[in-house]
Structures are given as structure tokens and as C-alpha cells.
Design goal:
It is built from ten helices and 16 strands. It is α/β, with parallel strands linked by helices. The chain has two domains: 200 residues, Medium-chain alcohol dehydrogenases, catalytic domain (Quinone Oxidoreductase, Chain A, domain 1, Alpha-Beta Complex), CATH 3.90.180; 129 residues, NAD(P)-binding Rossmann-like Domain (Rossmann fold). α7 links the parallel β12 and β13. The mean pLDDT is 97.
């Protein structure tokens, strides 16, 4: 089979490797049919993240089940499924408390598409073995297209997992999103509008396409983070220290700020003003698995429509060349999907 690999900056390739096989009765083998890049993938392909290839790339997909182990009963061959980006058992104390990124039965930081906790393959490849498939795979609901659900396994569920609790705790809040990473900021606008924010403001000095998407979704577009204006809920989706500072400095008293950004070096924060304002700040690798059914349900009932956020459609054959160009949020699609 063909395995899709990141080699180095702007260099991606397919290599021939043996087909994966079931290694446990809890495993499944799946074939990705519609995949997309996580915002991190885009930065990595551009040489802006500290990873050395070669390794299998890709951790957002809708896949077709090819084979299941004897203990996997909720999905069957031929069915379309959404795998979570993280590898987790589903039964340890961390998984049982909806925190699969802290799973104690797999290596720390185990995931698809990056070698941080071992080699689990990637979702631009022809086939992937899914450990703990009973926990990892969510069936694609009837009426939801594989294209619409392509990012549910990470970025889309990541943003839902931050926006939904923030608005549950502050219903009708005014929301500020500092964008700049490609899709997460626009997904945050999508969920904030859908889940009852009174207003959503969007700042992005780096990606005019995302600015226009946010405008179409109903966000107020600001040239910069407003001085003297406060928001109960803010999100940093910039990946830049100045964006993080802007999001933190805009929080109203006793409000919240969540950062989706990954910072490769220590970043100073305005600790005194955060203390005086009573800011609750969160960040971290997203525990998307428990949120995937909710996100799929919101797509199924029309509450959210992720499709406008995707930038391009390319074939799996063309993926090495197309993704090396740095496309913002491409759909990589097999024939028939």
C-alpha cells in the first residue's frame, strides 16, 4: 500500500509499505476516503514546526472500515467512520473522565500523523490500523457527507470543545476570536454564532480568505484587537505571541480565554492584568473523542456547516504536490466521495 510521508519542508511523498494488519481483537483497519490538513500540518509543511521527517502525515479524516477485530462490534466493513486524532484506550481513569490525551495505556502523546508517541500511521495513507477501535471510531451519521465531516477528528471538535463550555458558562457572551492559523479561528466563529453568542468579533491580520469567511459567517471584522473593549469570552487562534496577548488583554472581569495555538518556545503572559481581571485561561491538546458525536449531530441537523471553510479539493494521487503548496484547508478526496 501507499504511505503518505512528510520528508522535509515542502517535500511530501508516497512510499510503498506492507498493508497494515490487525494486531489485536480491538483493532480495525480503515481506508481514509476524505482527509484534510490540521492547521498544524500546514505550518509543519512550511517548515515552521520542529519535526524532522520522514514520518506518516495526517490526522483528520473520514475513513471506510476495511476490517475489524473480534471485539469491535459497533462498526463493520464498508461503513464510514470518523477516527479521533489521538490514540487512547477508552477505559483507563483518564479516558473514563473524558481526557483521552492523558491515556495511561498508550505512550505519552500517542497520535496519528505525528511521531510524538510512536508510529501509528497517518490519514493521507492508503490504509491505517486503528488501535482500540471501539473507542476511537465514531460512525458517520446518515445524511452527513464525508467532506463535511473531514475535520471532525481534530480541528472542528477541538473548537467545539472550547466554545461550547465557554458559552454554557457565559450564555449570550460577547466573543472575540484572534485568528491566523487557517481554519480553527473560523470554526470558532462558526460555533460561537451557532451556540448563542450575542456578538462575535474577528481579528486576523494574516489571512484575508479567513477574514472574508468570518464576515460571511456573521462576525464583526476588526482591524486589530480593540483597546478599551472587553469580551466575556476570547479565543486565541493566531499561533503568535501578540495574538495571545491581545486575546488575554481583552478579557472582561472573570471572563475566559482559550488558546488553540501551539507555541514552540516559552511565551510571556500579562500575569498581573490576568490576576486583576480574574481571567480563566486554558490551552492544551484537545480531548476531541468525547465531543465527536455532538459535533456530528450538529452537522447532521444543520446547526453548523463546515464545508465553506475548506479551501480546495484535490485527489489522493495529487496530494504530495498539492499539500506542499501550503493550501489553507484542502479536502483530499478518493473517487466517489
Amino acid at each position: 500500500m501507499q504511505r503518505f510521508e512528510f520528508v522535509k519542508k515542502r517535500e511530501l511523498r508516497y512510499v510503498d509499505v506492507p498493508m497494515p494488519v490487525l494486531e489485536s481483537d480491538d483493532d480495525a483497519i480503515v481506508q481514509p476516503v476524505v482527509s484534510t490538513t490540521c492547521d498544524l500540518d500546514r505550518f509543519m509543511i512550511a517548515g515552521l514546526a520542529p519535526f524532522e521527517g520522514p514520518f506518516a502525515l495526517g490526522h483528520e479524516t473520514v475513513a471506510k472500515v476495511l476490517e475489524v477485530g473480534d471485539n469491535v462490534s459497533h462498526v463493520k466493513p464498508g461503513q464510514l467512520v470518523v477516527p479521533a486524532w489521538h490514540v487512547a484506550c477508552g477505559t483507563c481513569a483518564s479516558c473514563a473522565s473524558a481526557r483521552p490525551t492523558g491515556c495511561t495505556n498508550v505512550p505519552r502523546n500517542a497520535m496519528f500523523g505525528l511521531p510524538t508517541g510512536g508510529d501509528y500511521g497517518g490519514f493521507f495513507s492508503e490504509a491505517v490500523r486503528i488501535p482500540f477501535a471501539g473507542y476511537a471510531l465514531a460512525p458517520l451519521p446518515e445524511g452527513v457527507s464525508a467532506r463535511a465531516a473531514a475535520s471532525v477528528g481534530d480541528n472542528l471538535s477541538d473548537t467545539y470543545g472550547a466554545v461550547a463550555p465557554a458559552l454554557r458558562n457565559a450564555p449570550g457572551a460577547d466573543v472575540l476570536v484572534i485568528g491566523g492559523t487557517g481554519s480553527v479561528g473560523v470554526f470558532a466563529v462558526t460555533f460561537a454564532k451557532a451556540l448563542g453568542a450575542s456578538s462575535v468579533s474577528y481579528v486576523d491580520a494574516f489571512d484575508p480568505e479567513c477574514v472574508e469567511l468570518a464576515r460571511r459567517l456573521g462576525a464583526e471584522i476588526l482591524d486589530e484587537a480593540p483597546r478599551g473593549r472587553e469580551f466575556q469570552v476570547t479565543f486565541d487562534a493566531s499561533g503568535r505571541p501578540d495574538g495571545l496577548h491581545a486575546a488575554l488583554n481583552a478579557v472582561a472581569p472573570n471572563g475566559t480565554c482559550h488558546s488553540f495555538g501551539i507555541y514552540w518556545q516559552d511565551v510571556a503572559v500579562p500575569a498581573l492584568s490576568m490576576y486583576m481581571q480574574g481571567v480563566t485561561f486554558t490551552t492544551g491538546r484537545p480531548n476531541v473523542g468525547p465531543n465527536i458525536p455532538d459535533v456530528l449531530a450538529l452537522i447532521a441537523d444543520g446547526t453548523v456547516d463546515p464545508l465553506p471553510v475548506f479551501s480546495d479539493v484535490v485527489s489522493f494521487d495529487d496530494a504530495p504536490t498539492a499539500l506542499a503548496q501550503g493550501l489553507r484547508k484542502p479536502l483530499v478526496v478518493r473517487d466517489g466521495y
